[in-house]
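input
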Amino acid sequence: MASHITGSQVSLREANMALLFDAITKYGAMTQVELAENTGLSSSTVSILVRRFVEEGTFTTTDTIRSGRRATLVSIARKVGIGVGLYIGRSQLSICVTDFSQTTLAYHDHPLPFGHKPDSTLIQALRLIHETIENIGASVEEISAIMVAIATPIDWKHQQIGVRGILPDWDDVDVVAHFAQSFQCPVFIDNDANASAIAESKRGVGVDYPNFLYVQAGDGVGSAMFINGALYRGSMGLAGEIGHVQVDPFGDICVCGNRGCLDTVVNEQRLVSVLSITHGSLTLDDLIRRASDGDAGCRRVVSDAAVRVGTVIAQTCISMDPGCIIIGGALCEAGDVFMEPLRQSIQRLLFPDAVEPILIISSPISSTSVALGAALSALELAPTGN
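output
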């Protein structure tokens, strides 16, 4: 009988320790008072378990101030492992390094030339990882996992590019193998919208919504769906590719091979070309800046893009019924010039007698969310015990 009680006590202690670890992994560094509030454990139990974790080297504590009072901040010790997130975009290379407490240890953006080639870009990415890890005083042996987010559909099941032709020259590149040869840790790839949605679920608006739709609108359109607190990938990992929903059956041929996809009307080249006669040569950033500054022509182009995107979002919402729609990407940086017509076009096509309208909000972490989400996802996928 005594051994049964001891075993039960051990199981309870392990369960409580798991509660603490999961809370800090999910929400980041917390004070002991906050840990007690979030786990439902008593303050004395939290104190005992934190002391045990610190002795084991799993947790570390630092002094902090909360509401004017001294408090003990608890975080996961960095030696447990770090996650590296890389974002290879059409014109951008970004890196984010986080630890298991979700603390961002480093973040950097680097421009890439239009039409950048895989060989030079991957060499630059390797160099960037080594430099960043060295700069934070860590070693590559501490890396628990690497996630590479790429601006193209990814076949999650087979960890390879899922739709050929969208990111020129990358179709036959084995991205996972390239990094796995240089680092002794698991390497994964995902698309940029999924990575951003993961960041939103952990550090952004999505924290409070188990069911939300994330939409990335800029040089093309992508999305990701969180259903019941988990990213929905579909059978091959290609769920959420709303940029390839047809909006014009007689429209331009898309890079995916179909005709009239949303991406054929909402992409940098198409948007700025409409203004070429009146405004000369513009970039997407120029267009967004001028629209925000009140340029009538630029505002019209951004507004028209919002209506196009909103129409497809509404169709997705009727099937998915999200509690929240989070908008990221370059176009949301135009503020209400983009967001208001987007909201109107979505609400106009949803059920008019719904009890309450869907919350539609621009992401406050959009500029960093891809690499951040990739880093957080890497740690989720890393084998335990590192």
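quick obs: Residues 33 and 43 are 7 Å apart (CA to CA).
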